[in-house]
Amino acid sequence: MKILTVGLGYIGLPTAITFALHGQEVVGVDKNQYVVETLNDGKVHIEEPLLPEALEEVLIRKNFKAQMNIEPADVFIVAVPTPNCDDEYKGCDLTYVVDAVKSVVPHLETGNTVIIESTISPRTTEDVIKPMIEKAGFEVGKDIFLVHCPERVLPGQVLHELIFNNRIIGGVTPACTEKGKEIYDVFVQGKLIEATASAAELSKLMENTYRDVNIALANELVQIGAKLDIDALEVIDMANQHPRVNIHQPGPGVGGHCLAVDPYFIVAKAPEEAQLIQRARKVNSQMPNFIVEQAAKILEEHDGKIITVLGLAYKGNIDDMRESPAIPIVNQLRSMSGYEVRTYDPHVAEADTDTLLEALEDSDMALVLCDHDEFKTLPEEAVDVMKNRVLFDTKNCVVSDAPFKEHYTLGNISALKNVERV
Ligand code: SAJ
Fold this sequence. Notes:
This protein is α/β, with parallel strands linked by helices. About 40% of the residues lie in helices and about 15% in strands. The protein folds into 3 domains: about 1-195, NAD(P)-binding Rossmann-like Domain (Rossmann fold); about 210-215 and about 225-280, no CATH class; about 285-415, Rossmann fold (3-Layer(aba) Sandwich). The chain has helices at about 10-20, 35-40, 50-60, 95-105, 125-135, 160-165, 175-185, 195-230, 230-240, 260-270, 275-300, 325-335, 355-360, 380-385, and strands at about 1-5, 25-30, 65, 75-80, 115, 145-150, 165-170, 190-195, 305-310, 340-345, 365-370, 390-395, 405-410. The longest helix is centred in the middle third of the chain and has 32 residues, at about 195-230.
C-alpha cells in the first residue's frame, strides 16, 4: 500500500515511519524544507526515543522518503497542527488541516482513503472535510473513504504506544470505518475501536478534557484546604484509597499542547452547555496567580528577595515549554518590585542559570514548578549555599533530605503564619 502523510511533526513522522517499518511504501510530506532535507539526511528534528534508529532503518530499506510535494497514493494521512483560534472561546483553528486537504484533493483517485489524525473540533470531518471531497466529484463512502483517527500517544513513548494503544477508527460511513481498520491493522496490536467520525473527534477531546477537569478539582481543593487549614494532599491521598476515586494531582497549572488546548475545542462548539469544562479551564489557568500569591507570602515571612525557579518545562523530564505555567509565574514574579528571579531547568535551554549551585547561591526560596527527576533529590551542597533554605515544592516531588529550614507544598501552605517547620 502506498501511504502519503501530510505533516512530519511529533505524530506525523512517527506514524509515517511506523507504516514504513511494517512494509508499506511511505512518502512523508512537509512544507518545511529544513525538515524534509534533515530527514532525507537521516537525522530526526524532534526529540522522541528510538525514532532516529527507526528512520535509519526505513531509509536503508528505501521505503520512506520525505519531500515537499503531494503525489498520488492509496492513503493520505493528515497530521498537521490545530492551534487555538484567537477568539472568544479559543476554538479550533482548522487552517492547516483545510490547506492540507486542499493540497491532497487534486491527487485523489477512486478507491483512495483520506485519514485526519489531527485533533479537531467536533463534527469537523463530517461538516468541513467531507464537503471538500464531494465538491471534487467523489462520493464519500463509495469512491473515497474518509476517516478520523485521533492520536493518543504520550510524548516520549510514541513509537511503543502507536503499536500497542487501542485506536479509535471513526469513519464517515461504515465502509469508511472498515477501510480505516484495514489500514491501521498493518501495525496496531491494540483494539481497533469502530466509531463514527464525530464520536471519534469528541472522544479524543474528552480524554484530555476529563484530565483537565479532574486536575482543576485537585487545584480547587488546594485553595479550599488553604482556607480551612486542611492539608489537601493528605485529603487526596486518603480519598484515593477508595476503589472508585481518582482525584488527580494539583500543581502550578496545566501546560502542554493538549490539556490546555483541547477543552476549548468543545467549549467553542457548545458554549452554553460546556459550563463545567469552561470553569475547569479557568481554575487551571488561574493557578499561576495562586502560586505567586503564596510565594509572596512565604518570602514576606523571611524578608526574602531572591527566588530560584526550578523547572520551566510544562511537565517532568521533557524540554517542552508550550503553555507551561512556569511562564506566567516567572513573568508575574519579575513584575513585582524588589524580587530577583532566577530560573534553572536542565532540560530547557531558555533557563538563565546553568547549574543548580549558581541558581541557588544566596537564594531565599527554591520554587519547584516541574517534577524533573533532577529535582527529586536536591543535593545538600546546593541547598547549603542558599541564604534562606526555604523550599516551595508545587509538584510535591522533592524527597530530598537536604537541610531545608522550611518545606512548603500545596498541602501545608495554609496559615502561613504558623506552619509547622519540617
Ligand atoms: N498535570 C497535573 N496534575 C496531574 C496530571 C498532569 O497538574 O495529575 C499537568 C502536568 O503537569 C502538565 C499537564 O497537566 O502540565 C498535562 O500533563 P499530561 O500528563 O496530561 O501530559 P500531556 O499533555 O503531555 O499528554 C496528554 C495525554 N492525555 C491523557 O493522558 C488523556 C496523552 O495521552 C495524550 O496523547 C496527549 O495529552 C495528547 O497528545 O493529546
